[in-house]
Specification:
There is one protein chain. This protein is an alpha+beta fold and about 450 residues long. About 40% of the residues lie in helices and about 10% in strands. The strands form 4 sheets. The protein has a 6-stranded mixed beta barrel. A two-stranded antiparallel ribbon has the order 1-2. Helix 1 runs antiparallel to helix 2, helix 3 packs antiparallel against helix 4 and helix 6 runs antiparallel to helix 7.
Length: about 450
């Protein structure tokens, strides 16, 4: 019926290509080590991504950055036990379930289209999103085609007895999924079927034909999916196709916010401008602005992707990418209006300090009327280069002094722009005397931070 997942059968002729359905359990088993290592690598990468993406939310909601990660590990442990159990099972056992599983898959895919549980413009799930039949289809198509291809292993080069019937099977499953629509699942089903056909003994020209057909069909499927208006059904019949809101309609007044957070003044049921509140006092209208009268605008960088490419030498030669200070260090640009610069005796090219009660960041001044009075602009993502950790940063990492709270007490989100600071011209000579070790660390004028600079006790012997 096909190749096993993780287990090879050795030492038993009954499990050769001519093995019968009455074959007993194998005498000796060995794992497919390369495949197992690939699976383990994907699992490790996946749980790393889970922790990276969920740590902040997990900390804010559950009080521990590892809460969601640990929950994922528990499910991983359970899944690993199931994997081990299935890997040691006689794979012939699945043969009796192939046809019922495929029938259940098609039934579920049809049920999705009939029930029409619309979520985000698609009808992909049952039981309020708990079951997604297209995922069952990926498993079902592998089991069914393994049996189907094994039974026709002597006919695979016959286009009428193999290729066309295979296309009909994949077309039914893929077509039902395309109607949801779910293009990624359709592509996955197509690739699975094509690869299984080729590995089962199909000719290379047939394999190439199926791949070419997939490339020809996919633009039409993509166009059909893109042509679906996400709210088209709702617009045509709001009662039959309600939105996923308590009222089923577009809500300018959030019933859920009113119900669950009635006393939240920072995120009321009707959205409006809230200059400052319990979580943040970062408005120019707040008394804090008397001490920190400038508002930071921190955008995505123009010359890099977050911190990536900050060390690219030819980008750093662009005048608006970095500002070279008198100490030879290339500082992150801070854009400031001439009226604000004049009050502080700042000129273009000066090294300046951006500061508030959370710390200080050094930057290179760019005096320009392109920035509004009362605001300064510095891109986020510059590489962290602390002169004094948690106090002064030389690299221009403006995120080190942004608010520590989330968007509001009931809304998780980073506040990386629109916060209060002041700016002053830096006294580099005084800083170099006070923090002489930090200013003596190895530095590359072409690329910025270098390997030795960021190592603790990283001297080479």
């Amino acid at each position: 019926m096909g190749i096993q997942s993780f287990v090879h059968v050795k030492g038993d002729s009954k499990y050769s290509n001519q093995g019968s359905a009455q074959a007993g359990r194998p005498k000796r088993l060995s794992f497919d080590v390369p495949l197992l290592l690939v699976v383990i690598s994907l699992i490790l990468f996946g749980i790393l991504m889970v922790y990276s993406a969920s740590a902040d939310y997990s900390y804010q909601v559950y009080g521990s950055p590892a809460y969601i990660f640990m929950r994922q590990l528990r499910w991983l442990g359970l899944g690993s036990l199931v994997m081990i159990f299935l890997a040691w099972m006689d794979y012939h056992w699945w043969k009796k379930f192939a046809l019922p599983l495929m029938a259940l898959t098609i039934f579920a895919l049809v049920a999705v289209l009939i029930i029409q549980d619309t979520r985000l413009g698609s009808v992909r799930s049952l039981f309020r999103g708990s079951i997604q039949p297209s995922e069952l289809a990926k498993f079902g198509i592998v089991i069914y085609l393994s049996i189907w291809l094994h039974n026709r292993r002597g006919m695979l080069r016959n286009i009428y007895l193999a290729l066309i019937p295979l296309g009909m099977i994949m077309g039914i499953v893929g077509g039902l999924i395309a109607l949801q629509p779910d293009l990624s699942a359709v592509i996955t089903i197509g690739l699975l079927g094509t690869m299984m056909f080729f590995l089962a003994g199909g000719e290379l020209k047939q394999f190439l034909f199926m791949m070419a057909l997939g490339f020809l069909v996919s633009p039409f499927e993509d166009a059909a999916i893109l042509s679906v208006d996400g709210m088209g059904d709702f617009v045509s019949d709001p009662e039959k196709h309600p939105l996923n809101t308590p009222s089923g309609k577009i809500e300018f007044y959030s019933e859920r916010l009113a119900k669950h957070f009635p006393d939240d003044k920072e995120r009321p049921p009707v959205p409006h401008w809230v200059p400052h509140g319990e979580s943040h006092q970062e408005s120019l209208s707040h008394p804090r602005a008397q001490k920190y009268p400038l508002l930071v605008c921190s955008n995505h960088p123009k010359w890099r992707v977050h911190a990536q490419h900050d060390d690219m030498t030819w980008l750093r030669e662009i005048p608006t990418c970095k500002v070279k200070g008198p100490d030879g260090y290339f500082y992150e640009p801070l854009w400031i209006h001439p009226s604000d610069a004049d009050k502080r005796a700042i000129r273009s090219g000066d090294v300046v300090m951006i500061f508030n009660e959370r710390g200080t960041v050094l930057a290179g001044a760019r005096v320009s009327e392109r920035i509004m009075p009362g605001t300064v602009s510095i891109d986020h993502g510059a590489r962290y280069d602390p002169i004094e950790p948690a106090e002064i940063d030389r690299g221009g990492a403006i995120n080190t002094i942004c608010p520590h709270h989330v968007t509001s007490k009931h809304a998780t989100g980073q506040v990386a722009s629109g916060f209060l600071v002041d700016v002053a011209k830096a006294n580099l000579e005084e800083l170099m005397k006070k923090f002489s070790d930090a200013f003596k660390r190895p530095y590359s004028e072409a690329a910025g931070l270098c390997f030795e600079r960021v190592l603790d006790k990283g001297e080479r012997e």
